[in-house]
Request: fold
Amino acid sequence: MKLLEINHLSKSFGGKKVLEDISLYVEQGEVVSILGPSGSGKSTLLRCATFLETMDDGTLSYCGKEVVKSVGGKAVYPSKADMREAKSKFSLVFQNFNLFPHFSVMKNISDAPISVMKRDKEEVYEECRRILKKVGLSEKENAYPCELSGGQQQRVAIARALVMNPDILYFDEPTSALDPEITAGILRILKELAQEKMTMVIVTHEIDFARAVSDRVIFMDGGFIVEQGKPSDVIDHPSNERTKAFLKKLSV
Reply:
């Protein structure tokens, strides 16, 4: 089943086209990594998929239901109720964590399920503790973000996303703000989620990780999808010159 399907997405900022005719899909249980140089449109694509940016044109569907339609060359968004339903299908983990500084770890994780989804408080707390254990932060539920390392804050952000029980989990450069030693711990958590068949779309510059964990890799440059396929094809045997040049720079 296709959890996400995007067709012919375009997006401009101030007359500058940053995404051009982007079409992609993500199947249930897949891990899709998006690679590409800075400014290639990777993060903007993620922001369009999660409604943080509005598409100029194109269609976007979640779980087989078209959410954004294309009418006369312009993207048309649905009612607030339909948007709410679509937003319940995914969670997004930002590169800079985006935790509430005045909330404890537990409140950061439990606030949305309790106040937005109106779930039972004790049930949510129980699930939060289970997820905190999963990400190795059982002893930190009463700590505040300022008391945590960057890696610990990113683990909290991942836990906050997981407790929403999303169909699809988006990561925007989840390790770019972390040093290499801490990065390894975050990538280990993502690998465990992949083994559990969590559907994920990961914008990353970690090539070895993308090769190891992805079902498919998408390479973007200049607002276009230049190449996509299995990691063994795109990373190890790229057919496009731009992909080859990008990977060669990274290996230097």
